Amino acid sequence: MKKYCMLIGVIIMFFSSTGTILAANDEESTEDRSVTIKGDWFFTYQVNVSEQKNAFKLKRGYLTVEKQFNDIFSARYTQDITIDQEGDDVGNVELRFKYCYLKTELPDLGFFKHSYVQVGLVPRPLIGFEASINDYLLQGKMYLDRMGVISSADFGLTAVTLLGGEMDENYLSKVHPSFPGKYGSIAVGVYNGGGYNSLEYNNNKTIEGRLTLRPLSAILPGLQLSYNMAIGQGNDTLQTPFRVHSFFLSHETRYTTFTAQCYFGTGNQNGYSWNFNRGYSFFGEFCVPKLPITLFGRYDYFCSSVPSIIAPYETTQVIIGGIAWKFYKNNRLLFDIDKTIITVFPPTFSFPTPISQIVAELALEIVF
Description:
By secondary structure, the chain is mainly beta. It has helices spanning 2-25, 125-133, 143-146, 169-174; strands at 35-48, 53-68, 73-83, 93-105, 112-123, 153-163, 184-191, 206-213, 223-233, 241-252, 256-266, 276-287, 293-305, 313-327, 331-345, 355-367. The chain has a single domain, classed as Porin (Beta Barrel).
């Protein structure tokens, strides 16, 4: 309890001092800045080869409204539209929040540039950073989100800063504009811990952080090394431990993207798990020069086991390959094949039986 009181006290002192500085620099203005409306919709035709099923689906529909109040304060509201998969409303279109927060720009402080704080239903440090590099949410979730370890958003507070200012305009326009710190970036936050689509079932708060370094910004500007962590309890009443340690390497150029991730941890954000987890993931993308075509592939491995040498354990392997055609700005038509192999190893000397599932899809992303 004392550590949470100290944490809350530090946050209050931080906002109080920051608010004083911002109030001194922020003159009243009658200017009514425009509201920006954006959309990102994922439609797909999926064929489950293993189960011999096929269907047209709405995978996700994001509708974002952004309001810039002045040079310091802005707000974002994003609807997450999908199909209800359970309960009495199964099959109906389900509407929920993905993001809903107030963003406050902070003054530069020495080496820390372009800093800001988001309060409300906010992005979490790890998944948002990974998704900014692996731009294939149209295909599916990021590695640890897909494995049920941690989600992309939650109720709480996120603070972000760039190290040493921004990369040059050539990098921003031709390689990547997200988290463009010249020497890296930092993101830290405090959250309920259960994710944006869960109620809070305990009084625990999860502390998460990401440290990203760009060690060779002059020679290899696209190379970044990241460490991600989360410490807290699972979202249950049993005080199950929740720990995440992830090492993430990424390299981006105008035509190529490569990422490698190594993870180990305990439990997951949903709770009711004491399992030890470990795994790794690789992702690669190649953009065909002078053509709006990209080729991509991904491999995930995840192993989960209870803390006993005689207990069973389970592994999940995911193999993804596909091709995408980009048309009219950022709209895309994508074809991919996704193979998942789940193997449960029993505590005896009997042979495990892997269960595989193959899904092929033709997906359309509509961006406006």
